[in-house]
Amino acid sequence: MRWLGSVLCGAGFAAASCLVPDVELVDSLPGQAGNGSAAGSKAVAGSSGNPSGGKTSANGGDGAGGMSTTDGGAGDTAVAGAGSSAGGDGDGSGVGGDGSGPRDDTALSCAELGKAACHGESCCVTLPVPGCKDCAFPGGTTYSVSPLRLDKYEVTVGRFRAFVNAYDGPPAPGAGAHPLIEGSGWQSSWDGNMLSSKAELLNAMQFRPCTVTAVRTWTNEPGAQEQKPANCLTWYEAFAFCAWDGGFLPSELEWQFAATGGDEHRKYAWGDTDLDLEHALYGACGNGTSSACDQSSILEVGSKPAGVGKWGHLDLTGSVWEWIMDSPSSAFPAEQPCNDCASLGVSMYRSIRGGSWPEDASYMPADRRQEDGADSAWYNVGIRCAYEP
User: Fold this and answer.
1) What is the Cα–Cα distance from 353 to 203, expressed in whole angstroms?
2) Predicted confidence (pLDDT) at residue 158 exceeds the cutoff of 50
3) Strand 43-45 relative to strand 78-80: parallel, antiparallel, unpaired?
4) Of 193, 200, 307, which is closest to residue 261 (Cα–Cα)?
5) How do the domains of the chain map onto residue ranges?
6) Which of 159, 158, 320, 160 minimizes the C-alpha distance to 226?
7) Which residues have C-beta within 8 Å of that of residue 381, sequence separation ≥ 6?
8) What CATH class does 122-389 carry?
9) Cβ contact 28:74 at 8 Å
10) What residues contact 276, with CB distance under 8 A and at least 6 apart?
11) More confident residue, 140 or 108
12) Is the pLDDT of residue 243 over 90?
């Protein structure tokens, strides 16, 4: 494990700021089409032929949920459905469903959770991030990022419990691949970093050391922690979870695009000002060094609605850091110009983004880059998954 002494402490940061993961600093999707040209009916995501509820279905097909942007009227909300939900029969004179509403595709991780478990809605709600073509980063770098969907909430203990209960070993080679990034799926060489059975994973979740301080949200049995963010998870486990649940880890480019409001380049998910405890969970216990750093410091996901991002996502600033697909690179984006690019090097380190509940304000800007060992399990690092549009 590397520490921050050479990176931050040498730059004049307080000693307490060194007790965080290793750091490297560098600088509308449619729902079901409506019937007719007027406002459409509620968008329904089908699940036939796709265990994750049709997250990857094509337009108009079985389980597609009407992905056309031109058929029929605007769908006002996307709601999970069962079976085939083909696109509507509008005459094209209306505007297609814009996908601006949430979509819960009855993901595996929420199959047995209440549909109102997270603030009155499913913990598996996904929201669209529209992407951007030939956009400019500060400094002149050009990038393009394609549309995707992203979990509204960080993955909860309850969702991760479903994965643990279903666990039967490492993912298959190629699982969890980003649809636009070649070679991004699971590699068999990673199998040794995963436990071999459900019993072993359960034991690890209960007893493995939680780096820096043993503040884990996991409990042996379901209880009061189910809506808190899952923590103390390795990158490999985060990757495997998203793959199992029908998605993939977002790239660093995608995550930052969502967290900074795209080409608005916001400092925080909600904007440029007013970093406070109304907007984000941070600074809770002296970077993990305080005796008050306990379970009460970690709130349920979505507990800071004032901090909502441009497209409706919560906790992109604070709460827990989130594992990212990429290995860290010295340049960001990893390629210039960048077109859905990612850094897929062989480094044992992986990026984490977003800040977390123990750190001070200096860790909260949405462009703050940080990394840690893929096999480490931190008390303040969790997951948010991405999905095809």
Assistant:
1) 28
2) yes
3) parallel
4) 307
5) 29-99, 122-389
6) 158
7) 21, 231, 232, 233, 320, 321, 322, 323, 352, 356, 372
8) alpha beta
9) no
10) none
11) 108
12) yes
